[in-house]
Design goal:
Layout: E1 19-23, H1 25-28, E2 36-40, E3 46-48, H2 63-81, H3 87-98, H4 112-122, H5 125-131
Antiparallel strand pairs: 1-2, 2-3
Helix pairs in contact: 2-3, 2-4, 2-5
Bound molecules: zinc ion (ZN).
C-alpha cells in the first residue's frame, strides 16, 4: 500500500492545545490495532497512524469530523461494493466532482467543508444509481 504523507499534527486545529503521540488506550480504554495515536491534550480530537510508522492516517479529527467521515463512508462504500464500479473508479468520480486530484481524495484528509460537499454529492440520485 502506498502511504501518502499527511503532516504530523503538533497543535490542535480545533482548540490550539498541544498534540501528543501516545497509546490509543487513552481513547479506547485499552490498546487497539497498532496501538498508537496522535491525541489532543485539550479536546477529544485524535488520529491513528499507519501501522509500523508514525505517519498519521489523516488529519486530526474531532467528534464532528469523525461523524461526517462516517456518513461519507456509509454513502460512498456501497457504490464500490456493488457491481457497477471498482473502488478506484468510485474515488475518481468523486474526486472529479469535488474538483480535487484523485490522490488527495481520502475522507481522512478532508476538512469539514470538503466532507459536507462530498456528502451533498453522495446523496445525489446519480450516485445512488451507482450503488444498485
Ligand atoms: Zn484540541
Amino acid at each position: 500500500m502506498r502511504i501518502d504523507s499527511c503532516p504530523i499534527p503538533a497543535t490542535c486545529s480545533y482548540c490550539s492545545s498541544d498534540v501528543i503521540y501516545t497509546s490509543n488506550a487513552a481513547i479506547y480504554g485499552k490498546e487497539y490495532g497498532n496501538g498508537r495515536v496522535y491525541k489532543c491534550t485539550g479536546c477529544d480530537a485524535y488520529v491513528g497512524v499507519h501501522t509500523g510508522t508514525d505517519i498519521p492516517l489523516g488529519r486530526l479529527a474531532n467528534r464532528e469530523l469523525r461523524q461526517l467521515k462516517k456518513r461519507c463512508h456509509s454513502l460512498f462504500d456501497p457504490a464500490w461494493k456493488g457491481k457497477k464500479v471498482k473502488r478506484r473508479q468510485a474515488y475518481s468520480i468523486l474526486a472529479f466532482k469535488l474538483g480535487i486530484p484523485v490522490h488527495e481524495c481520502h475522507f481522512g484528509w478532508f476538512d469539514m467543508d470538503l466532507l459536507i460537499k462530498a456528502i451533498n454529492i453522495l446523496q445525489q440520485s446519480e450516485w445512488h444509481n451507482l450503488r444498485s
